[in-house]
Amino acid sequence: MNWIERFKRKPQEKDVIELTKATVARLARTNPARSDYYFDKLHGYLSFAVECGLRGEEILLSCFDLADALDPYYRALDWRVKTDFWFQETGKYKDIAREPRSITMQLYPQYFAAILDGRKKYEGRAFDPFSDKIYADIRQGDRIIFNINKEVNGWFKECVTLNLEPDMLMECLVGRVLFAPTVHGVYQFNVNLGEEFQPVVTGTSEILQLQRAAIYYSFPDYARKIRDYGFLGIELVNPNRFQ
Known about the structure:
The chain has helices at 16-30, 36-51, 57-70, 72-76, 78-91, 109-116, 155-161, 183-187, 193-197, 206-217, 222-229; strands at residues 102-107, 122-126, 143-148, 169-180, 231-241.
């Protein structure tokens, strides 16, 4: 079992972050491959999250994500493995000339509205090399057609609140495509980038960055995909209603 996986199994009567924080010191002694710097940072982020009243597995995974993004050992080894694989996948397509293509994606209503009104400038996706969207071949100038995800509870009521038509479509052009092995790694491309991914969480403080990254770990199967393959940031240009 992966050593991080141990902390994803939590007893119902205790908080997962408190359990993890209490075992970081022991874990540091039994995992010499990880630096003291890493465990000091991880313990600090977990403590900070608890002090700020944050709870839940998504916040826990966001703390690990941030510690990984800043750990020199991780950046030298695991970071390189994921990055090399990303460039291997993109290399399959980069020399193939083609016309801009269209990709269809779904969004929860609040994110659909945030893109449409210009607040959300980047779409974050767990890199999945097996997806039919062929993420490794998304290029500047491609077109993304977004529709509203109707599988989430309360989607219709949220559409009414946000003045969205249930069958509305939105078109965006692709600008930059960013890749990093972690969510926080992508956020580090620019100091304000986290807010452009998740504008519903406003501000630039570290605790807000933890909350923004945690959102992605709440999506189905994203924790596994980010852990195995990394994370993408797709810049969205000129969003408009699509007829």
